[in-house]
Amino acid sequence: MHTSQKMRTPLNVDKVIPFIPEGDFYFTKGVEAFQKRKFDIAVKWMKKAVEASPEEPLFRCQLSIIYTEAGAYHMANQVLTEVLEAHGEEYVDCYYLIANNFAHLGLMNDALKSAQQYLDQAPEGEFRQEAEELLEFLDIEDEDEDWDGIDDELLIFQETAFYHLERQEWDHALPLLHEMMALFPDHVTAKHEYSFALFFSGEEAEAIALEEKWLEQEPQSLFCHTNLAVFYNRTGETDKAAAHIEALFNVYPLHSQQKLRVAVTLARTGYYPEAVQRFKALPKSYLQGHASYYKWYSIAAFHTGNPSKALTLWEEGCKRHPFLSKDEGPWIHNHQ
User: Fold this and answer.
1) Which of 29, 202, 217, 297 could serve as a FRET partner for 191 with CA atoms 20 to 30 Å apart?
2) What Pfam families has UniProt attached to this entry (predicted)?
3) What does pTM read for this prediction?
4) Which domains occur in the chain, in start order?
5) What is the distance of C-alpha 176 from the center of its chain?
């Protein structure tokens, strides 16, 4: 550096120590924002803490808690799963936190398994009482022999309804789903599949009214947002559809079928590049039984300038699911 440049510098540069915040600084800022219930700001600070100290599981756990408080239960569980993968038994509390999030999402079987896993690994753990209360709330702490029978019956209903839904046989699906709702009122998926079939059978207003009512009861419901995005898109209410699509952009579910639901919704509503990114991240081996995977991935690929990929997917889909060949391929725009 030239002497003249040094003279114009008000400080002796050699003695200036740059301030580079470490993870603890970001963590503290995140906790402060969280305590003020400024969740968006808290998430930003906590993400910075994680980036600055990626090996510090405490920061990720706190990030998950912020997501939970903000109602982003899927995001919370994604973070907690990362902690368990990296640190395992050192952070068994994650199992309870995951169970709590599953319960909020209405995924009761998953909540049960995670809560029980926590109690098995930490019988005297910090969240023992909460985990026991959660099991009691789920009303399955003392399982009896009928539980497996109920699961089997539910599975038969699910598979039969799925068969008809995939084939767009709405008249066959509706009575089955209606019966499922009566027999298994806690099975969240059934009521949303019912409204979906109702909409495409011509009862559009009733289906929308149902989903809007359920959304008021559970504003973070993935099922409500995916269905309403499709419904409003189909009825030409694009502003309303866009609001629900926006809610999906930052949702990354843990379960493959829920991941598929988001990807298909994005494709159905014309968000093809975003849909392709979601489809690429899906574990194909788990979804080969879903015709919708091949159909909508093919359509999204075609509309993002990849006709060869679209054709390959379509041909594989038709081979695995011959009923798909009734449709005219991804190059036809009018799909349900």
Assistant:
1) 297
2) TPR_4 (PF07721), TPR_8 (PF13181)
3) 0.57
4) 23-138 (1.25.40.10), 149-326 (1.25.40.10)
5) 26
